[in-house]
Amino acid sequence: MPELDTVLVSRLLTAMTLAFHIIYATIGVGVPLFICIAEWLGIKKNDIEYRLLARRWARGYVITVAVGVVTGTAIGLQLSLLWPSFMKLAGNVISLPLFMETFAFFFEAIFLGIYLYTWDRFKNPYIHWFFSIPVVIGAAFSAVFITSVNAFMNTPQGFTLIGDTITAIDPLKAMFNPATPTKVFHVLSSAYMASGAILAMIAAYVILRKGKNAHRYHKKALKLTVIGTFIFAIMTAIAGDLSAKFLAKYQPEKLAAAEWHFETEEAADLILFGRLGEDNVVENAIKIPKALSFLAFGDFNAEVTGLDKFPEDEIPPLWVHYMFDLMVILGLFAIVITFIYLLMLMRKRWNPYNKLLLILLIANGPLALLAIEFGWIYAEVGRQPWILRGFLKVQDAATTSSQVNNMFVLFFMLYVVLGTLTVIILRRMFRSLPVEQELEERYDIHSMEGR
Amino acid sequence: MSYEIIGITVLWIFLYGYLIIASIDFGAGFFAYYARVTNQDHLINKLISRYLSPVWEVTNVFFVFFFVGLVGFFPETAYYYGTALLVPGSIAIVFLAIRGSFYAFENYGSKKSNLYMFLYGTTGLLIPAALSTALTISEGGFIEERNGKVYLLSKKLLLSPYSWSVVFLAIVSVLFISATFLTFYSSRAQDKQALRLLRTYALFWSVPTIIASLITFITLSQHNPRHFNNMIDLWWMFGLSIVMFLISMFLIYNKKYYGIAFIFVMLQFFFAFFGYGKAHLPYLLDPYITIYEGVTHESMAKALIVAFIGGLCLLIPSLILLLRTFLFDADYVRGKK
Predict the structure, then answer these.
(1) Which residues of chain B neighbour A426 with C-beta distances below 8 Å?
(2) Measured between beta carbons, which residues in chain A are less than 8 angstroms from residue B3?
(3) Across the interface, do B64 and A414 touch by the CB < 8 Å criterion?
(4) Is the dihedral of CA A332, A15, A413, B58 positive or negative?
């Protein structure tokens, strides 16, 4: 069946673009907040090291924004190129937030340009700092709008479909659909968490490598970013919990697939890991009695809808269970590691810069991004077979063009090149001008004092 | 005014905005490369990167804005253009990707490499060529709907004289717009050497622009007589376009008022672009989609227009701030900040 192939390749190409874009999008949403905080601290405390922190983060951030703009343009166009039938339907109902997303990004791009090129132009340093705020807001609202489009795919509303004709369109109702609040909360908090984790990873890496000789600049960076990661990791967990409760109510098959919950029952157990044997018998799993009921409804005896309530061809693939578990475990890992660091930092006699902890903080950077990847895989695959739940299936929405395979290869090569270049350029950029040297050159201060 | 007219007017204005600022960017890339090859890069490349560094992201957003708005106001276009443009659209994305990313890498990261300069220069010409395909296709005759499926007749597209004349027009217009803008910018920076070089570029590319426009007129009369006749009815817009062109050339030739000369170049393209667009109506894709049948529902159109007005209230002051900071701040332009 050649048609199925086109659908499959369209899905793979979209998945590849999204998996690549989400890395840059996450950093793009989260890092401006840390830049803004660092510069504010620097001005308030009259501490040039915090200001240099903001300056160096901003310099690296531009590279990721550049690639993010490019991959964002790619996914924006690919929606129409690969899923023309979906966009025709969605364009009628959900184009408002898509349209507003471009405004938000426009706003962000303008002020990012101003922010980057006006570092030493104002006598009052708060004016320059002020330009970072529209960047933070613009980035956050881009995420809000685009996430509401994804939420709409999960719980579409605000229109009536009769045959092929759409009527009674209510753009605001479509935008503020039931999935929007929890999804937006989860996406934003996890973006801030992961960005903090990435920045903490960099600081921890330098401290680990330089040991006692590490400049206090890096220690300040680590402290600031770990505190941020910790706060947002907690918020991400809360958002995750609210998302589970949302799913139990509005999209029960998605939660049931993630939890391998086959029979509708009260006081349902939570299943961690394990594997599926014959006839969907769960083997080797950790079972927490009644925990699923509690997770879903905040009540240990509540009834949780199982997969038995859905026709077989409307059940998502069951391997999303692993995606869900991995996401949760990695999220907990971030909370625990950052908490230990903060605890050790507060205890005067403990050394928060011991090797093992630094290594774990380094690992937390990529792991946090992985958690986001797993979360999105769960969110997207868990919606299958629907592209617009209850209205349009993925297999009916894909392009009919026979060229999709070639496009997949083309974009694969593009992403390999872009990913490699990002790493090379970022390394070269910061290696060629170490912190000590920049402090000395820019602020005429002997870096030795800082040690 | 009806929603479809407001919608298409807004979108067309944004496409016009993209045409101007993207042309400056694309052409600058080519000139930078050309200057490198002919060992003149020390004269102009600093000037070019001074202007482009802060604004390149904004350029891209104009484009995204256009296609997102198009799908919003006229969802049918997603279906037809989406299917037909998979290959040219994907190629354009890859070019934009190479350009956008190398841009940042170059400006913030590394030394100037020859490969980069080559890609930077050539993609500046290939992107307009790829994107102009969409306008060519909109004339009809290159898309066919059979058994409920949409096909792009790529062979016909590649052999069509009209299609090639549009590509030619796109490329020379990019170079002309860019050269006239950079002439103005260098005069503002009081960079005499750069000005001398860029002014010759501006004069050099002026005549091919007019020739390419004429060729496109002629090939269009063969390809889509309806559109051509509509354009003839709007002859005064194209006449005005030529008058604007002559005034700008007069000023640049006499080494006077380069800023005003550039405004006349913008007006030249404004009249031509809107004349072309108005004559194109009511079709968005001849003969499949018209603005009347393809328009979205009233409630969505209203919401989009409200969002648009709200967005403009936010963006226009921001854009003015951006331009004041980088374009009209004489000290910045001269490199003193």
Answers:
(1) 109
(2) none
(3) no
(4) negative
In chain B, what is the greatest distance between 2 CA atoms, to the nearest angstrom? 64
In degrees, to the nearest 5, what angle opens at C-alpha B232 toward C-alphas B226 and B233?
A: 90
Question: Would you say the C-alpha torsion B239, B242, B244, B246 has a positive or negative sign?
Answer: negative
Contact check, Cβ <8 Å, A103/B54: no
Rounded to the nearest angstrom, the minimum Cα separation between A72 and chain B is 9
Residue B104 is nearest to which of A63, A167, A414, comparing CB atoms?
A: A63
Interchain proximity B105–A63, CB inside 8 Å: yes
A446/B166 Cα distance (integer angstroms): 60
pLDDT in tens, B34-88: 888 887 777 777 777 766 666 666 777 788 888 888 888 888 887 888 778 888 8
- Number of Cβ atoms within 10 Å of the Cβ of A61: 25
Which of B53, B61, B99 would you mutate first to test chain A, the one with the most A CBs within 10 A? B61
Residue of B nearest to A72 (CA): B64
Measure in Å the smallest separation between the Cα of A205 and chain B Cα atoms: 21
> In this structure, which amino acid lies at residue B285?
L
Q: Are B109 and A428 in contact (CB under 8 A)?
A: yes
The SS3 of residue B68 is: helix
Query: What span, in angstroms and rounded, lies between the C-alpha atoms of A308 and B96?
Result: 48
Backbone Cα Rg of chain A: 24
User: In the A/B pair of chains, how many CB contacts fall below 8 A?
Assistant: 211
Nearest CA in chain B to A96: B304
HSE-CB for A147 with a 13 A CA cutoff: 26
Among chain A residues, CA nearest to B67: A77
The ipTM (two decimal places) reads: 0.77
**What are φ and ψ of residue A382, in 5° steps?**
-65, -15
User: Least CB-CB distance to A69: which of B55, B57, B314?
Assistant: B57
Place of tokens 């006239």: B180
Residues in chain B, overall count: 337
> Tokens 């890498």 — which residue?
B105
Residue of B nearest to A102 (CA): B65
Q: Which residues contact A309 (CB under 8 A, 6 or more apart)?
A: A252, A253, A264
Let me know: does A426 contact B108? Beta carbons within 8 Å: no
Helix or strand holding residue A271 (H, E): strand A270-272
For B276-332, how does the pLDDT look when each residue is reduced to its tens digit (9 = 90+)?
888 888 888 878 888 887 788 888 888 888 888 888 888 888 888 877 777 666 666
pLDDT of A264 reads: 85
